[in-house]
Write a structure and sequence with these properties.
The structure holds 2 protein chains of 2 kinds. By secondary structure, chain A is α/β, with parallel strands linked by helices. Chain A is built from 4 helices and 5 strands. In chain A, helix 2 links the parallel strand 1 and strand 2. Chain A starts with 7 loop residues before the first helix and ends with a helix. By secondary structure, chain B is of the alpha+beta class. In chain B, about 20% of the residues lie in helices and about 30% in strands. Chain B contains 1 helix and 10 strands, in the order αββββββββββ. Chain B is elongated and about 95 Å long. The chains are: A alpha/beta, B alpha+beta. At the A-B interface, helix 4 of A face loops of B.
Chain lengths: ~150, ~180
């Protein structure tokens, strides 16, 4: 289910069935990496929607979080703090499984929190990743990974 | 006795009034004739039902058998405002009597996508991983599991050359 107005009634009615959150983390890179960043953003959103389509009866697709990629590791760790509070709020609301979808392997630090899992797309930099077929392939792969955590 | 002009019967419509009414009528007619097509152009697409491409070829019937085979295909929809493609999936079974059963993989509980024969405890069943929904090979929901109805079925036809066409998915009773 998507976090949008058309789903409000059904979500409020069937809330007990939803215990899994999917949050796309879109990284913004500027300068020479702008084009790559834009392509990755588009691919990430398509993959997220494809995963939601497969598991819409139990998984809530939250709006994207975007962030600017820093070179400084300390700055990266500082950015994790508000995300940690966001995750904690979701867990308190009944989302026992939280999945972060991103191209950024450095977001793995968020996986140290209990029941927060990182779904990382390995980018080849190719524009073909944007194609629906490629996105469906990623979605099928991540769907199996999500289901494995449900067991 | 000459009649007093004040006692003369009043005319219902004077010439001036008649001309005014006529001009107003003609003017209204001209405005309506100009505005109506514009209103219709603006509103009409909203009143048209979405037209979905009737059937789309998904393969030769010989490639399907008694075991469900999943296929992906695209249906074209024209809803009056825009024309777009909708991706669909189906599990196709050709039964012993030659009838085709094309099942929609959308779980009737909360819309997840079911999978065929992936649940160890219930092999050869359609399985919804979200809430352990189960359907038999015919797409009939198992009692005691979350789904509230059988899987939808696609309208289909098979041409003389053996090409299988699938159309819109409908509830089982509507086929």
């Amino acid at each position: 289910m998507k976090w949008d107005p058309s789903s409000i009634d059904q979500y409020m009615d069937k809330k007990k069935y939803f215990d899994t959150a999917l949050i796309p983390f879109v990284r913004i890179q500027l300068g020479s990496q702008t084009k790559k960043s834009i392509i990755e953003s588009a691919s990430l959103i398509k993959v997220a929607h494809a995963i939601e389509d497969l598991l819409q009866g139990r998984l809530m697709l939250f709006p994207c979080c975007s962030y600017h990629l820093e070179d400084n590791i300390e700055q990266e760790q500082l950015k994790a703090q508000p995300h940690s509070r966001y995750v904690q709020a979701l867990q308190e609301d009944g989302f026992h499984h939280i999945f972060i979808l991103s191209f950024d392997k450095d977001l793995r630090h968020m996986s140290i929190m209990e029941n927060v899992h990182h779904l990382s797309i390995i980018s080849t930099g190719a524009e073909e990743e944007q194609s629906m077929k490629a996105c469906q392939g990623f979605a099928q792969h991540f769907m199996k990974e999500i289901i494995s955590f449900w067991k | 006795m000459s009649e007093d002009k004040h006692s003369q019967p009043k005319q219902d419509v004077t010439r001036r009034q008649f001309l005014n009414y006529t001009l107003m009528g003609v003017g209204a007619f001209m405005v309506a004739g100009t505005v109506t097509p514009m209103l219709r152009m603006a509103i009409d697409p909203n009143l048209q039902p979405a037209v979905q491409q009737d059937m789309v070829a998904v393969g030769d019937i010989s490639q399907f058998g008694i075991e469900p085979v999943r296929i992906d295909f695209t249906l074209n929809v024209d809803d009056g405002w825009e024309n777009y493609d909708v991706s669909q999936s189906a599990y196709v079974i050709v039964q012993d009597n030659g009838d085709v059963l094309a099942l929609s993989p959308i779980c009737k509980h909360l819309g997840c996508t079911v999978q065929w024969d992936t649940y160890e405890e219930y092999p050869e069943h359609f399985f919804c991983p979200c809430h352990i929904g189960l359907y038999d090979k015919e797409g009939i929901n198992l009692p005691g599991t979350p789904p509230i109805a059988p899987l939808d079925v696609y309208r289909y036809r098979v041409d003389e050359d053996g090409t299988l066409y699938l159309g819109q998915a409908v509830a089982r009773g509507e086929l």
